[in-house]
Amino acid sequence: MRRFILNSAASILVGVSLLLSPNSVGNSAVEARGLWGWPLEGSHRIVRPYLAPETPYGRGHRGVDLAADSSTIVLAPENATVWFSGRVVDRELISLRLTDGTLLSFEPVHSSLRAGDRVERGQQIGTLLDGHCTPACLHFGVRVHGEYVSPLLFLGGIPHSVLLPTRELP
Question: Per residue in 71-94, pLDDT tens?
């Protein structure tokens, strides 16, 4: 896996993690499958972006935080099976598994669904609780082959990369 961190003139760091293996999900695979639906209705304001860690156990932000009011309905972005629903440490969360093994996690979310339940794209999977951000927000994470990637890769929020030459060619 390769990680790239881009530093803009405004000193805004954006972490992008690209998986470069034969089984990875690249832009062409996402296009072939189509984009997912957003887990929240209405506007989609990102209050904290994905930031890839420098190492698997390093600091980073392994998902995006989406602004929302507590008690907001959380939706399944894609057809999936509930992988886990319950409390972890001090908050409730739900995770979904797609047929290709991709895991989606949402917190803090209260859900009556249980592991093994099938959900359809756009179906309510729970309601947002207070506790992750102030004011409330939904933390949405995605793991592909065990590695966290930006959910925006599947929601259409990251444009295609373009490599530019660093010098003129003869």
Answer: 999 999 999 999 999 999 989 999
